[in-house]
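User: Could you write out the 3D structure of this protein bound to adenosine-5'-diphosphate? I've included everything you need below.
Assistant: Certainly. Input first, then the structure.
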Amino acid sequence: MTKILAITNQKGGVGKTTTAVNLAASLASLKCKVLLVDLDPQGNATMGCGINKRELKHSVYHVLLGLVGADAVLKYSPTGKFDVLPANRDLAGAEVELVDVDGRETRLKEALAGIGQGYDYVLIDCPPALNMLAVNALTAADAVIIPMQCEYYALEGVSDLVNTIKKIRANLNPHLEVEGLLRTMFDPRSTLAQQVSTQLKNHFTNKVYETVIPRNVRLAEAPSYGQPVLVYDAASKGAQAYIALAQEMLTRTKS
Ligand code: ADP
Ligand code: MG
């Protein structure tokens, strides 16, 4: 069974792309077959797994507009050992161009129906907005992973997102669930981080992953080499944390 997970939070800079690339590589290292879908026009996930976004003939943009089939756009990440539907700035045009298109919310879902079966996990790196691209991700997904920093306004942001998920469930995707909330760039010495973390657990209970991603400079450095942190520095705290997250996901799925 393929599990499609949208990695989403409308806030930028919370660790979505870092999580998408490194969770994909960690799951692949644990023998899962993984597809990473880059749904952000910035193409950071694409670059982060060693694929040059400037050299793409076709990207996920062409797939969403029905110009080419997804199988023709698939790339393999040599550093991450997983497949990628890459993106670049072309995708910025999709928002406007999809307006007049039939079934604009279900374009990604349909594309994945054509290629998704062979995978254990499809991870979708979402843009930092609740736009039509994000709607496509939430419509295609079985569940969402919400990376967040334990900061003062973080809980408000998450409740906005939960409301969006409820709307998507009512209109487009009745089975959409919250898979888990992931605390990123976590500093255990910060009192505020501890307080927000406690509130998060009170509110979302077992949806909060036990695994916490620490702030780790190796995670920030790895993308400039086109490598997941597992390749860049396997012994780093960041690499170990994402492996632990992948293991926690697999254990949860079994139980
Ligand atoms: P988003 O995709 O949500 O916008 P990113 O994953 O791009 O967020 O992360 C934002 C910035 O923070 C990037 O420069 C990234 O390298 C850095 N970063 C993300 N997670 C960590 C971490 N755990 N430790 C240190 N830096 C991080
Ligand atoms: Mg991003």
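The chain has a mean pLDDT of 95.
User: Perfect, thank you.
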